[in-house]
Amino acid sequence: MKRIVNFFSILVVLLGVTFVAQTFANTPIVDSQDAQVVQEQSSDDSPQEESQIMHGLKQFYTNSAFAHFTYQHLIMILAGGFFIFLAIRYNYEPLLLLPIGFGIIIGNVPFVEGMQVGIYEEGSVMNYLYFGVLKGVYPPLIFLGIGAMTDFSSLLSNPKLMFLGAAAQVGIFVALITALLLGFTPEQAGAIGIIGGADGPTAIFISSRLAPNLIGAIAIAAYSYMALVPIIQPPIMKLLTNKKERVIRMKPARQVSKLEKILFPIFGLLLTTTFSPPSMPLLGMLFFGNLLKESTVTKRLANTAANPLIDIVNILLCVTVGASTQADVFLTSDSLLIFGLGAFSFVIATTGGVLFAKFMNLFLSKENKINPLIGNSGVSAVPDSARVSQHEGQRYDPSNHLLMHAMAANVSGVIGSAVAAGVLLSFLT
Which of 139, 87, 135 minimizes the C-alpha distance to 414? Predict the structure, then answer.
């Protein structure tokens, strides 16, 4: 706690120094266009009226962040610091929140336009890195790594659990309809709706095509709720189930043959992309990565996709997404609405998965009943949602192991959100 207080104290001191410096220089906080005017006026001053030293100091001040620092920048820097705090202190998705948080800080250090340092300035290094986000290059590479890390055995051993992954996608379409009612365009509503799948790469992929101007808000919302899965989902799961349902023991998963594992990515690709061709970039790479893993003859490629490649892409994706949240672009009423819709859609998605598990139990025999606590795993937050299912199940029965069953629903959610994204692209492009 002492470190947090020190961190906020430093930020307050920084803001205070900014205002003192502005008072000393008799220069108000201005935006980038005003700063350019001041710069031009300074260059026109005659050396006879002002010493070269003072002229240089004013020029330095005008080009520094102090001259352009506003309370909006401070808000965003605090938000970035909060993300880093959650990642380090509570271990909430540190591989995502830490680079995103630091990216937010990078993107909110004010500068003079034309210096080619901002992420939206053509020709800047950050702009080149952001190209992978704007053009949807990074998400398929993330899916390649996910495929190379994923074992679909639990799904293959109990295929009916894929319905939980499908049911959880109701959050996407509820959020889409709500966004339309709030005045967003159909394209923007489609991009916002995908937050309900709790799948960051898919959210970025569809946003890059339907609403590029909302990528920052949508991506931050999607990753935030992915990180908060252990907080958001348990109360919903408890509310929607009773004590008897929480201790249901599911049949152990059967042994899946190597042939099944090899054929699944091939037939899975043909089935899903035939139904939803626009999802090809995501699902094509997902199933390709899984085939690299299950074939056992391309271990080097599978290890590369599952480890260094996905780590590198994750760093570039998260840092640039964070940096895209410049205060003047990000702090809008639309961003606040997107965050609210994201929370709403995530709750609906979790509710849909749990309730559908209860619905399926109405038609299943006693020995084939599904523990509704795995319904929350229908969202695409892999593997955190499955871990929540396991943790909540063991709270009521320490010897009950739900993880493998929950993973079946979880990987189904990944496929389901990508298919839903493809369907939306088919209708909205």
Answer: 139
